[in-house]
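Troubleshooting log. The previous run stalled partway through. Resubmitting the same two chains, unchanged.
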Amino acid sequence: MQKGQKSMSTNSGMRGEWPRNGHNRRAAEMTDPPAMVRVRFHRFLPYWAVLQTDLRQTSQGWLFVLWIGLMLVGICGFYLYRVGLQQEAGLVQSAAVLCAEALRATFLGSLAVVVILSVAAIGTERGTVADAILSRGISRHQYFLARQHARMILVGVVFALVSTGIIAVGSLLFRGGEADISFRGAAVVIALLSLLLAVVAAVGVVLGAITNSTILGIALYWLLLYGGGLLLMLAPETWPTPERELSRLRYVLQGYYSSAYYGRIALTAAAVACAATVWGLIGFSRKDV
Amino acid sequence: MADDENNWIVETQHLTKIYRNRQIALNDVTLTLEPGCVLGLLGPNGAGKTTLLRLILGLHRPTAGYVRVFGRLMTPNAADIRRRIGYIPTNPQFPRGMTPISYLDYIGRLFGLPRDVRKPKLATLIRAVDLLPHSGDPIAHFTPGMTARLAVAASLINEPDLLIWDEPTHGLDIEARRSMLELIKQLASEKTLILSSHNLSDVDEVCNHACVLNKGQMIFHGTLQDLKGRIRRNHYELDVDGDHKAISKAVSVLRGLKDFTHVVLRHRRLDVKLGEETPNTVLLAQLFQVLHDHKITVISVRTVGMQTEQAYLDLVEREESRGFVRLYPASEAA
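Second attempt completed without errors. Output:
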């Protein structure tokens, strides 16, 4: 028999059938031997199963709904306030500046939730639920990658949609501003922020997989991101710190940016995610669940 | 011997698990399982039963030693080996928001089963475990019995060659427990099973081999008959009827006989222990002769302590009493 194949009977009768009321309701024994066929296992089906289930379950989870809700409420409140200023006080504001402010606040706020969403991806399923999944025909590598990719996709796609909405609504509401938002600049901002958030999710899943406590992992990651960000503010002016990059978003939205520079940032982020993933794959494979 | 080695379903060598240098969960366990074996894994709480099962499944990595399943080394990434194993954990839990259909479909996909195999199989299993009326209900609202049945279905969806069931009768009512044992008996005829249980009567009923763990150490591994063979023999209980004075007189006669080491009468129940020197058939013949001479009727005769439970308790007690000599196997120490 070839690797990855197994003989399975195609007759639908379960040989050890569950009896009811003390009477064994076993199916009538077939007189002919059951037809045997070779079943080719789908190698990547376990990966898809975990990926799809994780996407569905996470998107129905309270934390995800809370994240979306907070983002929408925050953006609506901010825009209403700014529209009020424009209508009542006659303050003409730049759409790019307002959108950059909204994106910056949404990004920094989202970090907190994305950390929880990502670190908890594997950590919360330790024990009996992990038993029910990892004791089946799925390798640790596939399970880890499926979880990580699901969280990255969800975080990246949701943030891309929300930031698209922020820019679209902002450019509609504040048309009288001094400078319009460039289409290419907006695309760069959306892609960059979504990518960075997806990378944060990727590293978060790794931390969740290799730490023994989910709470500890979340606390460590928060400390690393927010504490590290604050410390980097002390770095020399030439350093591309997160705070400085976020404050430059208004110019990027207006179309003043260097493709090569942001390309390097994207590549660096992708390299960090890849390195973290390799670390997670090795660490999770050596871990008891 | 080489053939035997190739045929072993499970083989562990010097399997040891120490959690974070703080807790020794399993200590130097070496055992082998032949095809068709139904192994009852026995031991008190914290004996290391679940740890052993998790090591066999590759959910835990051994601190020392190794596990081979179907002749191949079990690792956390050995998905191909796990495709041939059906597992039920203690108190099985399920992902949120699933119904039996979606859960079994999920498990089928985790095994890599294609749709045309998976879908008919899950429908058959749901029908077989009597969950058809609840096939669309959320699993979160299921009773322990229904949960157990779903876990059974999940463990059989890949038509495994090896079944590892961790306390499958835990929390079940009498009827569900009986059904579970009947199912195990059915499956035992064609599959290899490892059954962890606290309930010794379950093991006695369905298993042909036993492995006893105590504080992480394997203190017995062999057939159930071997286990029972280690227990104290020649202890009988007789329910008798007849004149009270005659019974008392018979008891005093029996006490006077050689090799009747213990004769006690309690409310017309005669508790008799026989010595080892004379064959028990001779002594029992004497016993019945005395009863006959005193016109006493025997209502029932029972052997005491001939059950697995007694054997198990004896083993654990003996192991505890060995003190530091535990360093050596029982046979060497003797």
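Takeaways: Residues 235-303 of chain B form a domain with the Alpha-Beta Plaits fold (CATH 3.30.70.100). Chain B has two domains: 2-226, 235-303.
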